[in-house]
Amino acid sequence: DRAQSLAHSKILTRGEDVQEQYDYIVVGGGTAGLTVADRLTEKGKYSVLVIEFGVFQNSSSVTTVSYGFFGLIDPALNFNITSVPQTGLNGRTVDVIVGKMLGGSSGHNGLQVHRGQKADYDRWGSYFGRRSQWSWDGLLPYFKKAWHFHPPSPELARANNIKYDARYWGTSSNIHASFPTYAFPFLKTEIAAFGEIPGVQFPPDSGAGLPGAFWYPTSADPGPMLRSFSRTGHWDGVAQTRSNYHTVTGQKVLKVLFKNKRATGVTFVPANATSGKYARSVKAKKEVILAAGTIHTPQILQGSGVGPAKLLREAKIDVVVDLPGVGTNFQDHPFQVGALFNLTKFTAHPDPNDLFLNQTFLAEAQAEYNANRTGPLSIASGNAASFLPLRVISPTAFSQIADKCEAQDPAAYLPPGTDKTVVDGYAAQIRAHARDLRGAGSAVYNLFVRGTYNEGSAIYLHPLSRGIIKINSADPYFAEPIIDYRALSNPADADILVEFTRFTRRFFLDTSLSNYGPVELWPGANVTSPADIITALRSFMIPSSFHPVGTAPMMPRKLGGVVDEDLLVYGVSGLSVVDASIMPDLPGAYTQQTVYAIAEKAADLIKARA
Ligand SMILES: Cc1cc2nc3c(=O)[nH]c(=O)nc-3n(C[C@H](O)[C@H](O)[C@H](O)COP(=O)(O)OP(=O)(O)OC[C@H]3O[C@@H](n4cnc5c(N)ncnc54)[C@H](O)[C@@H]3O)c2cc1C
Fold first, then answer.
1. Helix, strand or coil, per DSSP, at residue 172
2. Which of 348, 404, 313 is nearest to 517 (CA)?
3. Which listed residue, 17, 76, 227, 551, has the most CB atoms within 10 A of its CB?
4. Which of 218, 547, 601, when mutated, tests ligand 1's pocket best, judged by the most ligand atoms within 8 Å of its CB?
5. Among 80, 98, 108, residue to substitute to test ligand 1 (most atoms within 8 Å of Cβ)
């Protein structure tokens, strides 16, 4: 197609075609990387090179909106990484899934578009003090800039009580947030059931920064009904027409080069290289911007001599700056927590399972989709969920749990020998989270519902356990980094997840959903004591919903931070990080919307200091 041939004509696939020098080098052409590169090149003033490990991909596993998850199962789009065995999960390992293509994880995520709560972004600023620009108010203009909002059709909104308020959104971005044209009938019943629980609110919009039960959009361009992601919104038709914008794909950055602690450029090799034999270097006049994502940004920093000195020495890497926080503070949203239910008296067909089980329904849906790009196949992985505070899911235990967190010795839950600055940062986070666990403005529990009879796998939005990512000291550049989620290493997580299970049971058994014959599939109605629930969790929970953050945290340096509020790496100059790794802690939402907003804000910060 046209987009593809245009793209192919302008892309550099050979390292030797790269110029000697650019104003900016963006490492990683993913969600954040392509957003920043677009903004830096749009006025024609600066030259930018994006270096991307993956290649241009436009297969149906990327573009398809229906079902939302084709990319997950396409090995061409994924790095092949497995975590270390998880002590807290009976030694199980976990697949670490992040996107590998021009567009990064935005090219194969589940297309759900949520914004975190005000409390999340204000918490980020609180680590720096009252006047930080990292706050809900400071980020709201960038959420608006990042997204082009298309409201649901009036019929869909009316039939399903979908609340939205376009004032929380913009319409100038080429990244689209839109609604499917169809909703399965049972969804309305499920969302209404949340309203039967005391304290559950229905905020005016999914972007209002408030917890509750609500509908939210999909990252799809509603015209052609195709995935809208950083490549389609910030690169297709943009990079091709700007002579100041170069992209090289299929190349892996090994390290940042420094002269007197100033970043001067990077070294890169073909993505399939197993040695530095064909390494090339390229210079950055103004800045090297790391946007390789939460898994690989810390690997590149450590491989460049920016990281914990002890680890670097083990790997025989010269220390440029001893920055203990690099690779620490690793977080993701655990899922398969709560409880799974089967509604044995469900009759509200059609439901999503009918797309697999009812050939007539599938054929009709397919015909409608082919003709108009509408109907059930315009639904991706979901558009309705609850995001609930601990005090709502556990009115009896939330306060005690918060007390227990406040009384913790955080050092006890980090690896032995963790640097004092990192421990102090963790302590600050635990205090901030304890405050939010008590409050009504921050969601910990997420249950996304699909309008069907097998539901209930909740997602935990603010885990307190912290993982770690380290270069493989035997092969720091060519082996994948060593990834440890350290799942359930902070016992408060298990306490909170016990409440998740109890609440999920109340949701199915004590609301009008009880009319549909709910039977618990997991962990099972007989599993009731906290100890038994935790045992079940260890065998079932997955510590990732593919939302890794935090490994180059924006925190004060004395709190284990890696970047400051301008996203500049401490202890060196000319080096910044712009991707999910800078989030000090997780938002109470999936992460893509926040990553785009961070990238939009970062572009302004970078231009301001140019
Ligand atoms: C399967 C899946 C489902 C998800 N579902 C949702 C969802 O429904 N809703 C939501 O909000 N969020 C979702 N997310 C999360 C969201 O997509 C990510 O948080 C976000 O895209 C991360 O953006 P990023 O810029 O930090 O990293 P990425 O977009 O991953 O970009 C990093 C880029 O750097 C490249 N790179 C890595 N190492 C190197 C190197 N050494 N040299 C050069 N390039 C390199 C990578 O190939 C990649 O393109 C999902 C993610 C995944 C993976």
1. coil
2. 348
3. 551
4. 547
5. 98
What whole-number distance in Å separates Cα of residue 190 and Cα of residue 156?
16
Is the CB of residue 482 less than 8 Å from the CB of residue 469?
A: yes
Q: Output the residue whose Cα is nearest ligand 1's atom 49.
A: 104
Atom of ligand 1 nearest to the CA of 592: 11
Q: What is the pLDDT of residues 49-104, one digit of tens each?
A: 999 999 999 999 999 999 998 888 888 999 999 999 999 999 999 999 999 999 99
- Residue 531 contacts by C-beta under 8 Å, 6 or more apart in sequence? none
Q: Residues near 332 by Cβ (< 8 Å), separated by ≥ 6? A: 463, 467, 485, 543, 544, 545, 546, 547, 548, 549, 586
Name the residue type at position 555: M
Query: Domains plus CATH for the chain?
Result: 1-152+225-336+390-444+460-515+524-610 (3.50.50.60)
Distance 248 CA to ligand 1 centre (A): 18
Task: Indicate whether 8 pLDDT > 80.
Answer: no
Q: Does the annotation list 498 as a binding residue?
A: no
Residue 525: partners with Cβ closer than 8 Å, 6 or more residues away: 519
Pocket flag, ligand 1, residue 30 (CB < 6 Å): yes
Among 410, 391, 267, smallest CA distance to 329 is for 410
Is the pTM here over 0.95, yes or no?
yes
CA 313, 316, 321 angle in degrees (round to 5)? 50
**Distance between CA atoms of residues 331 and 426, nearest Å:** 12
111 lines ligand 1 (CB under 6 A): yes
- d(CA 597, ligand 1 centre) in Å: 14
Task: Yes or no: say if 58 and 103 are a contact pair by the CB < 8 Å rule.
Answer: no
Gyration radius from the chain CA atoms: 23
Contact 459, 334 (CB under 8 A): yes
Does the structure's ipTM exceed the value 0.90?
A: yes
